Amino acid sequence: MSFCSWKLPPIYTNLKKDRSICSNNRVISPQLLNKKFFIYNGKIFNIIFIKKIHLGFKFGEFVLSKKFFKKKNVKKKRIFKQN
Hints:
Blueprint: E1 20-21, E2 36-40, E3 45-49
Parallel strand pairs: 1-2
Antiparallel strand pairs: 2-3
């Protein structure tokens, strides 16, 4: 379901003193500029310092919630036939 174009995104300006955020769908507003926030990704809190380029985005866009890994190459055993 898409978001209505006539509705504005929710902006939360009153945050706790410790500035820990568990909801990643909050929009970063200009009042939060040059402040440090602790954003929960499901396991730990990540620290993010809000800069001018972050304005208008949501908090969840700057926190990874999945751990990416590279597939390891497995060496195959060679079996030699003996006659």
